[in-house]
Amino acid sequence: MNTPLLTITLAAGLGTRMRSKTPKVLHMLGGRSMLEHVLALSDELGARENIVVLGPEMQNRTDRIIPAGTEARIFIQHERKGTAHAVLCAREAFAGHDGDIIVLYGDTPLLTAATLRKLRSALAEGADIAVLGFEAADPTGYGRLVLNANGHIEAIREHKDASEEEKAITLCNSGVFGFNGRKLPGLLDRIDNNNANGEFYLTDTVELAREDHLDVAVVTCDEFEVLGVNSREQLSVAEKIYQDRRRREVMDGGATLLDPSSVYFSYDTKIGRDVLIEPHVFLGPGVEIADNVHIRAFCHIEQTRIGEGAAIGPYARLRPGADIGKSAKVGNFVEIKKSSVEEGAKVSHLTYIGDARIGKNANIGAGTITCNYDGFNKHFTDIGEGAFIGSNSALVAPVKVGDGAFVGSGSVVTRNVEPDALAVSRARQTQKSDWANKFREMNARLKAKKNK
Ligand code: UD1
Ligand code: CA
Q1: Per CATH, is 5-226 categorized as 3.30.390.50?
Q2: Which of 14, 79, 83 to mutate to test the pocket of ligand 1 (most atoms within 8 A of CB)?
Q3: Which amino acid residue places its CA nearest to atom 26 of ligand 1?
Q4: Under 8 Å between Cβ of 329 and 346
Q5: Residue-wise pLDDT tens for the chain (452 aa)?
Q6: Rg of the chain over CA atoms, in angstroms?
Q7: Which of 23, 98, 237, 379 has the fewest CB atoms inside 10 Å of its own CB, making it the most exposed?
Q8: pTM across the whole model
Q9: CA angle 11-13-19, nearest 5°?
Q10: Nearest residue to 271 (alpha-carbon basis) of 316, 304, 242
Q11: 349 an active-site residue?
């Protein structure tokens, strides 16, 4: 499709039912805001421009609202006078646009590019308006698509304005429209607010277009795809649908999920083939997992790369900047932050690794801590290839342990360790022969005396 495209995303609604200080469209779904989902869709369709209509209370927060790396042109709707009025707020951005215009809602994040492509196909085949409709299980509250005897759409009637007969219609308006850009401004100019809400309805474009003998098409999709989020409960329903979609994609891509419903993905999670993920795993944004990785139960992972054949968990926490090499092993109760664990290295139990490099094939004993923070600054720990850190050691950064070096367990390492050396910093062990027997005898005597 070579016709240029503009998208207009309406997001001026207050979202009072969310009971939140955060604007509704900034609430998160699969690791990014609902608005970001919609903007990503517009990018996926190759829109020439993303136009976003926001409410006045969002005027000073646009940098937060529009994610870095996304280009969007913002218009403010100062008074909420309806969906047509909202679109008209962006008039200067689309007046004279010779191409398609798609209107989206910022609170409808589950829509797919495939459905929008169908809408564009209808426009390409000559429709001046393409309405995205759906069969509603319960149509209450939605605008109804009123069809004539030939099955052609005549009008969209809002619930509040509908007759009893019209209320029985279950084919509803999703709110998403495709417009022929040359026709839209003329239609918008003729919309009035003669209705139950006293608002300027975008839906009225349909009736006006029919009066002009323009071609109006209806494209349908599944109801869940156009689920609008107005409350936290609806947000949780949307999240569930989104997660189920991602789970299916991940399994289709060749990963095994033992209990899909307990594994959470983000919009950008990348997973290779023959990855095995056990139950209760949460993957925040920025996670990339290569082939043949095994993630055991109860792991929390975000902004992390995991190399081929690595094994993670159970109960591992991988925080932003963790980079786990090929065939490396991260075991239970291990936390890793902003550190690379190179190929074949093992961090198997009860360990904190922060701001560090763990060299190839190094072995980090149970209970090792990199002391990376002095209360003011973070410092780096560098552990060389094949080094061995004995259990319960504290590595006080900045510090470097050379290739092949050993650190005796229980050491507090404050100075660099040469390659292939042994560093031990704990107190030397002493021994008092027969001390325990004497200790026991003394206590037995004292006890006997007391009981006399
Ligand atoms: C709208 C449709 C209805 C459809 C339903 C689907 C109209 C008149 N009605 O009804 O046919 O079935 O969506 O969910 O279009 N908005 C603004 N500025 C405004 C008004 C709305 O930006 O002045 C935005 C809202 O933030 C929201 C969207 O437009 O994202 C829809 O507005 P809303 O008030 O929820 O419309 P509905 O009454 O649900
Ligand atoms: Ca709504």
Answers
A1: no
A2: 83
A3: 13
A4: yes
A5: 579 999 999 999 878 999 999 899 999 999 999 999 999 999 999 999 999 999 998 888 887 888 777 889 999 999 999 999 999 999 999 999 999 999 999 999 999 999 999 999 999 999 999 999 999 999 999 999 999 999 999 999 999 999 999 999 999 999 999 999 999 999 999 999 999 999 999 999 999 999 999 999 999 999 999 999 999 999 999 999 999 999 999 999 999 999 999 999 999 999 999 999 999 999 999 999 999 999 999 999 999 999 999 999 999 999 999 999 999 999 999 999 999 999 999 999 999 999 999 999 999 999 999 999 999 999 999 999 999 999 999 999 999 999 999 999 999 999 999 999 999 999 999 999 999 999 999 999 999 999 98
A6: 31
A7: 98
A8: 0.93
A9: 120
A10: 304
A11: yes
The answer to whether the Cα torsion of 439, 441, 446, 447 is positive or negative is positive
232-423: CATH topology: UDP N-Acetylglucosamine Acyltransferase; domain 1 (2.160.10)
Q: Where are the domains of the chain?
A: 5-226, 232-423
Distance 146 CA to ligand 1 centre (A): 18
Which amino acid is it at 229?
A: V
